[in-house]
Design a protein that fits this description.
Layout (H helix, E strand, L loop, with lengths): L6 E9 L2 E6 L3 E6 L13 E7 L2 E7 H5 L11 E7 L2 E7 L1 E9 L18 E7 L2 E6 L7 H6 L20
């Protein structure tokens, strides 16, 4: 007998004036924003990379991805370490506000024809105290081409060319 999902546990995020949520099953951890190493010629919304316990993780700024203006004070910003295509991805958000449980029946499809910031990355929305919260589709944040550029689709994962050594090696 197949058990159907009744509830969804999500982390609520604040981005500009909007509220968003991410399924906590996709989040490995939430950390303060560390110093990022720049990534030359990266995609415009990729802020750089971090080394987290020996793993190099690309970091995407959700503000840039959504086309929002830069945040002046990043004191409350957090980095979500997400699982995407079997690898880790860092996602900078303005603030993580709370973890909540949402009944699946309360999840509504995205409104048609309404232009929402980040709407193309949305699974649906639900209300928290009459305030709409958009549930993000983590898998839609990067296109196939962008995933390939970040190395998420390479057949020889973990292998590097010996011709491309940097001066620091």
């Amino acid at each position: 007998m197949k058990q159907e999902l009744q509830e969804l546990q999500v982390a609520c995020l604040r981005m500009d004036e909007g509220l968003y949520a991410v399924d906590i099953m996709r989040i490995r951890e939430i950390i303060r924003l560390p110093k990022l190493a720049p990534l030359p010629r990266a995609l415009p919304f990729v802020e750089g990379v971090i080394n987290l316990r020996g793993q190099v993780i690309p970091v995407v700024d959700l503000r840039k991805r959504f086309g929002l203006p830069p945040l002046e004070n990043r004191e409350t910003s957090r980095l979500l370490i997400l699982s995407m295509a079997g690898q880790s991805l860092g996602l900078i958000v303005d603030e993580v506000t709370e973890m909540i449980t949402v009944p699946v029946r309360e999840l509504k499809p995205p409104p048609r024809g309404v232009r929402l910031v980040g709407g193309e990355y949305m699974v649906g929305l639900f209300l928290v105290q009459e305030v709409p919260v958009m549930l993000l589709n983590i898998d839609a944040l990067l296109t196939f081409k962008e995933m390939a550029e970040l190395g998420y689709l390479t057949p020889s994962q973990g292998q590097t060319s010996h011709n491309e050594k940097s001066a620091a090696c």
